[in-house]
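re the bet — no i am not wrong, look at it urself. input seq straight from the record:
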Amino acid sequence: MDDSVVIIPTYNEKENVEKIIRAVMGLEKHFHILIIDDGSPDGTGDIVRRLMEKEFSGSLFMIERKGKQGLGTAYIMGFKWALEHQYEYIFEMDADFSHNPADLPRLYAATHDEGYDVAVGSRYVSGVNVVNWPIGRVLMSYFASDYVRFITGINVHDTTAGFVCYKRRVLNTIQLDRIHFKGYAFQIEMKYTAYKIGFKIKEVPVIFVNRREGTSKMTGGIFSEAFFGVIRLRLDGWLRKYPKLPE
């Protein structure tokens, strides 16, 4: 049953993109994949097109955008595409193997079998499960999540996680055009909005492995957006009228 799609944003991921596609397509549970490529000059899109035409027609798809437009806008575009194409379970995942494709069925099970609306592949729900990160970045990420929980009150340990499964009804209810942030604050905003509406969120423990190939996209601007954006989210939480939880 093709009820699930994995959205993978890419920019200059020629070292990883074919490997990640094959890893997802090789799972026992069948997933479709939507690549959203921001005009990668390294030929990432060419690799995906070849795989679409020769091996994975009907299960691998791609949207190509002109230039880098931000992680959040890529996912919003992917979410709208997935809703239009009637998928019931919609996943976010990185292209660089920091998220293990073998964990996708566990996120699916949390939503499909256990009745949760959102499943978060969490680095911090059972300790600190991060491999190959400098200790400074581990501490920054861990305490950033603590900061988000303190400011917003959301009971999610890994609020910046980018390995997530949303049920269709969540994305249908969240007003996607009202999601403002583009960097890692986007991940916080999506989870916080789902939490404020009243959706059930489960954290599934995963091990996060720092990318082995390609270049990290983390910047200081992305981090500062997340830091100050959390305060704005809290203010919105007091002032904004959120959609009602669907029956």
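see?? Strands lie at 4-10, 32-37, 60-64, 89-92, 118-122, 130-131, 164-167, 201-205, 208-209. told u. also The mean pLDDT is 88. so pay up
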